[in-house]
Amino acid sequence: MKKILAIDMGATSIRGILAYVDNNGLQMQEVMRLSHKMVKVDGCLRWQWSRLITAISDTVIKYASEISAVAVDTWGVDFGLIDTQGKLLADPITYREPKHLKGLEISHRYFTDEELFRLTGNQVSPINTLNQLLALRAEKPQLLKQAAKILLIPDLVQYYLCGAILGEKSIWSTTAMLDARNKNISEYLLDMFGLDRHLIPAFRAAGTVSGSTLNSIIPALRAYDIKVINVLGHDTAGAALVTRAMSESDCMFISCGTWSLVGVSTDKAFVDQAAYRAGLTNELAYQERTLLLQNITGLYVLEQYKQQLENKMARKIAFSEITEHVEKHQGTYLTIDLGNSVFAQADTDFAAAMKESLCHRAVNSGSDDYRQYDDFDYFGVIYQSLAEQYRQTQQQLRQITQNSLSKVHLIGGGAKSTYLCQLIADTLQTPVIAGPYEASALGNILLQLKTLGEIKDIAQGLELSGKICPTVIYQPQMANRTENKKIN
């Protein structure tokens, strides 16, 4: 029995999970959790790199006598620069840095958004690594000249753990620097923007060993011989790995957390005008499958509104209280456009913004039912609006891929809400398979166990994880929700 440590890094918290397989199936134990935030240093919003890497290395050392391997997955696009001596030149800048807009302006001198989409398959955004690099070169040209390699965040952590300078394609597919069709770095783009090809590390496939902590650049880790495994560096790819969308072509997945990623697994990229106009993006998954997906607002509005309402009421609100209220509502709630930029801003008065949006809708549609809504009804508005967004994306994906998408696999925090799961099934008129909740961490764990030979394949790993990561099927228009069938 070999134990592994999975480091699952999100943009607000990171955690470490100890996992292994025994006679009772897959066992998982959270052994580290750290909240973190971006800070302003040298005029830029940066990640607290020293704090993050210290928490990771301390956890590895704490469990060094138990674990055989460690691996990391993270959010996309952000990176660090290392010099010819292997030193990190500066703490990584975050994707929320406003100066990245300069990079997008520079790219527009060469290509339109649609042209860039056709070249890379990525939805064009200031946060793309390409635009971050262009902005950095304009702002601090000497820093980029000092760089020997660009390492995206999971690759950078892996470098600290074992000294290997490697890239992994799922995370690099978020950069807008890969050609989505041939799944390799676009030499044409690098030439057009004058970026040095030598900055790009060699790629290694997910599910391989990158090295050992014996060669770590952190001195304290060199006392241990722990394998560092190259898993799917992008958390979205890791999460998609544990969904039926990877093995069943008619299945759409929804990763519902603060943001929602809605997509399908395909054997090719879609870079035509229809995909561009639909706001889709192409990223890479396990064994270089393509994820055609849309990144839309998820539970962020609900989280922010809940916090503001708690402040107003001077008490905590349990999710069970929210569910009990919205389930009593007769009919469907009115919907708002959660894609409106006002709902992405932390300083928004969410109650006022939702009321204004519904008032505007009333002018256009003649329905002023919202005037009867109380504070808790706005949770129902958010849930209904989420489900409607998913329905619209499902229709777009059906048209573009010419696939029926007759089922949905819902993962992430949203899968915990029985109300939301049933609402999605009813709105989409599609069965919804809900769970697991912590999908990206599970993807990381299963790839490590497969690499070590502890499981035969991902399917066996999912079967073994059934007891601690159960899934529930929600059928559309089911009168009695207690009839939903729990499956392993």
Automatic annotation (TrEMBL):
Residues 253-449 form the Carbohydrate kinase FGGY C-terminal domain. It comes from the Bacteria. CDD domains: ASKHA_NBD_FGGY_RhaB-like (cd07771). One of its GO terms (molecular function) is kinase activity. It holds the Pfam family FGGY_C. Keywords: ATP-binding, Kinase, Nucleotide-binding, Rhamnose metabolism, Transferase. SUPFAM superfamilies: Actin-like ATPase domain. Coiled coil: none annotated. Belongs to the FGGY kinase family. This is FGGY family carbohydrate kinase. It comes from Amygdalobacter indicium.
